[in-house]
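Budget justification aside, the reviewers requested a transparent look at the raw inputs and outputs of the sequence design task funded under Objective 1. We therefore reproduce one unedited record. The lines immediately below are the structure tokens for a 441-residue chain.
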């Protein structure tokens, strides 16, 4: 596409301190009052925190290509005054609108009256449709489709605008429901929406073999799939702490996902190493926390496990990681979690579980992580003891982790390929030009 600056609408869900410097966030009076009465945080930036780091990574790279790509980022966000805030920052155009799921009225109704969301997300979809109409993009690029609160907007997109969806996970994978903390009702709804989005998409971005098999086998046999991936790279992170306070660390955006596996392994280790400690960081719901607390009390581990809840910024999380000696990061559904790469960037040996086309590939060239089968708590505990007892092994794993990040996880070529795929998909959609083989999966 000669001399054309491609106009891209990126539909995603993220926040970080950089964009928050431009956002005017404010709690409504009732939410602020209720938080004050419960002695909870009333700083909206700290409540929101930082999330979806790979979107931030990708945007940092796209800033280099503003002469080629006119990028418009559209995202739902909590505490937006005036319902819509728009600005330009480092050559990228941002459009943030108030997330209907995060209004005080909706949160209050869910908490105290068992209110169920409409599931149609009409407010969010209305704002996204208005923005698409105003921007008039050449192509739409949706990052993640498992969140219907913005994913449903794909179904409203005019047919003349080509759509690439970049997968973060795949809920219609038959293994998803049994390995993820989700009600059957919610799973049926969300996986059904995901299938509808996949059928609407003109192009699907993923290089994960398992996802490709599911999509082409039972969802959309004629899907055009692009070998693009998320900007999940990590570079070595300089230390921000002076001492190691904990032996193990487990963290996730939502610890409900797999902390139960980490806890069972830790419980076995604690029986022979009563002084072992673990830091746990991430959001949790009340029922899950009650189960965890009961398990900790049952084995007398109240002084061994320290649970912080969700921390406001990534820097806070990294400080917690760097305050620990080993990363205990078992997985259930994730192919390979970003936390594994963060641990390697912080020079921590990683103990995790076997996931097909994911963690097993980490060890293709050299032993970089210690692996055990999902649910084999004894084997997980044995790997934990191995890194404690074998200092040479731990050091070798740290060295191998650095090599893996350098060889496989550089965000610059990842985003260069995303950019090339956007141009190629546009040309294919508008003019029938063949997509280069190296961009397909």
């Amino acid at each position: 596409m000669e001399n054309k600056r491609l106009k891209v609408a990126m539909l995603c869900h993220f926040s970080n301190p950089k964009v928050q410097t431009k956002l005017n966030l404010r709690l409504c009076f009732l939410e602020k009052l209720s938080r004050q009465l419960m002695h909870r945080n009333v700083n909206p930036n700290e409540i929101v925190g930082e999330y979806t780091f790979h979107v931030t990574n990708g945007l940092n790279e796209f800033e280099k290509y503003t002469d080629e790509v006119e990028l418009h980022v559209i995202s739902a966000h909590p505490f937006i005054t005036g319902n819509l805030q728009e600005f330009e920052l480092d050559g990228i155009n941002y459009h943030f609108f108030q997330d209907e799921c995060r209004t005080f009225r909706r949160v209050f109704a869910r908490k105290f009256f068992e209110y169920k969301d409409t599931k149609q997300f009409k407010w969010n979809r209305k704002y996204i449709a208005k923005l698409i109409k105003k921007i008039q993009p050449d192509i739409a690029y949706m990052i993640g489709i498992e969140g219907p609160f913005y994913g449903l907007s794909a179904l409203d997109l005019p047919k003349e605008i080509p759509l690439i969806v970049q997968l973060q996970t795949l809920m219609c994978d038959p293994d998803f429901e049994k390995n993820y903390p989700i009600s059957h009702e919610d799973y049926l709804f969300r996986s059904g929406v995901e299938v509808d989005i996949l059928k609407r998409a003109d192009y699907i971005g993923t290089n994960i073999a398992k996802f490709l098999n599911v999509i082409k086998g039972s969802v959309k046999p004629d899907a055009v799939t692009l070998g693009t991936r998320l900007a999940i790279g990590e570079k070595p992170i300089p230390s921000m702490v002076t001492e190691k306070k904990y032996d193990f660390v487990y963290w996730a955006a939502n610890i409900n996902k797999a902390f139960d596996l980490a806890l069972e392994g830790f419980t076995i280790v604690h029986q022979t190493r009563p002084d072992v400690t673990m830091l746990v960081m991430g959001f949790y719901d009340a029922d899950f926390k009650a189960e965890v607390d009961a398990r900790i009390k049952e084995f007398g581990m109240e002084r061994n496990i320290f649970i912080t809840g969700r921390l406001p910024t990534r820097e806070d999380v990294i400080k917690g990681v760097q305050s620990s000696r080993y990363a205990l990061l078992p997985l259930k559904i994730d192919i390979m979690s970003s936390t594994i790469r963060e641990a390697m960037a912080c020079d921590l040996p990683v103990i995790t579980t076997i996931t097909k086309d994911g963690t097993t590939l980490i060890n293709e060239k050299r032993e970089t992580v210690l692996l055990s089968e999902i649910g084999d708590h004894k084997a997980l505990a044995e790997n934990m003891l191995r890194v404690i007892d074998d200092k040479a092994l731990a050091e070798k794993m740290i060295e191998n982790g650095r090599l893996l990040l350098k060889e496989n996880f550089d965000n610059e070529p990842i985003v260069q390929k995303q950019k090339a795929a956007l141009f190629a998909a546009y040309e294919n959609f508008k003019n029938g030009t063949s997509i280069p083989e190296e961009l397909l999966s």
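The chain has a mean pLDDT of 94. The radius of gyration is 22 Å. Computational costs for records of this kind are itemized in the attached budget.
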